[in-house]
Structure formats: C-alpha cells, structure tokens
Amino acid sequence: MSTPESTGTETTLVHVLRHGEVNNPEGILYGRRPNFHLSALGVKMAERIAESIGDRDIVHIRTSPLERAQETAAPLAARLGLTPELDPRVIESTNRFEGISFRDGAKTLLRHPETWRYLYNPFKPSWGEPYTEMAARMSAAVEDARDAARGHEAVVVSHQLPIWTLRLHAEKKSYLHDPRKRECTLCSLTTLHYEGDRLVKVSYSEPAVDLIPAKDRNAAFSAGGTDDEKRP
What we know:
Keywords: Hydrolase. It comes from Nocardioides yefusunii. Mean pLDDT is 85; it is low at 220-232. The chain is α/β, with parallel strands linked by helices. The protein has helices at 4-7, 40-53, 67-80, 131-148, 160-170, and strands spanning 11-18, 58-63, 85-86, 153-158, 189-195, 198-205. The radius of gyration is 18 Å and the shape is globular. Strand 2, helix 3 (67-80) and strand 3 form a beta-alpha-beta unit.
C-alpha cells in the first residue's frame, strides 16, 4: 500500500476556527468595528480550543486582525509557543447594516426603510461583500496557511460568514443559503484536509458547543448579539 511518504504527497490539515462569544449586550451588528472583545464565556471557549487541539501537530496560526479573533487565538498560541500571523484576508465581511442593533432579530430591518434597497439580490449579496470575493480571499489565506504547515497542521481564526462561504466554495455548493442554517457555531472548527495541494475532504467539529447557551445554538438571529453574522 502506498503512503504519503512513498508517493511524495504530504498530508496537511488547516483548521479554520470561528472566534468565541463576544461581549455585545446591545446586539449590535459590529462587523469590522474595533473594540468588540470576547465575553467571559468567549474566553472560556478559547481556552477550550487550546485544551482540545493543543496537543495536535499545529505549527502555524494566522488570525483575522479583529480583537475577538486574536483573543480566541491567544490561549492556543500560548500553549503551542507560536506567534499568530495577522492576515486581513480572513477578516469579517463588509455589511451595510453594520452598527444597527439586531436585538429583535431580522425584523429590525423592517423598521429601517432606508436599508430595504440593499436587499434586492441575495446571490451577491447586495447588502455586503460579494460571496465570490469572500471565497477568493479566504481560499488564498487558507492555501498560504497550508503551505506554511506542509506535512503538519495550521489554524486560521476567522468569522462565521467568511468561514461558511469558504466551505460552500470548497464543497462546490451554491452560495445562496439561509443564515440560520450555517454549520458554524462559536469556536467551531471547519477543517480542510489536503494531500499535497489537493483538497480531499472537509470536516467539522464543535469542541465548545456545550458552552454555548441553548437559546443561541444554531440561531443566526439570536437575541443579545452573540452571533456577529446576523444577516437578512
């Protein structure tokens, strides 16, 4: 039986990690705004990630420059003795609704008629960064992480919509989707498995799911703003 060593093909894993819960009591769609940090629960989630995968063969970490992503990477980086690389390509997506409170969920948009004109094309989406551009930048960053960790494992810390868009692209699925059905909970891992440069599998795990309040699990429009990807 041939092995990766005998064929010259290296197995590399890139774990794309969503950040932990954010302190956001007003339920603001904060997007790329600065000064949104992990909550106390979010810190526990980040520590859980360090406990869950800190013994793996991880040799490279890169993260979105936003505070919540860097704070999520910190416990794992400390455990592994690695310095995360800041990569703007894995930042949150742009959104014309940034700054609006979504405490009442998607119904909020009905109270803001000035936003309605941005809802005409869910395929793009017309209210924010095009999915194709998001997939391209995320794919490029993940491939660079793969190259930096050849034969080992890497972690990329990002945000829900960019991660989900990356997964749809990797699995060759349509970008059009219901945000409430994204499989990308807080501090979840979407793992891309490579043989050499070839992507052979995408897997998913939720090391911190038991820490997520029941009301917030799989709820893209949950109250309290724990999900930074609240979208129409």
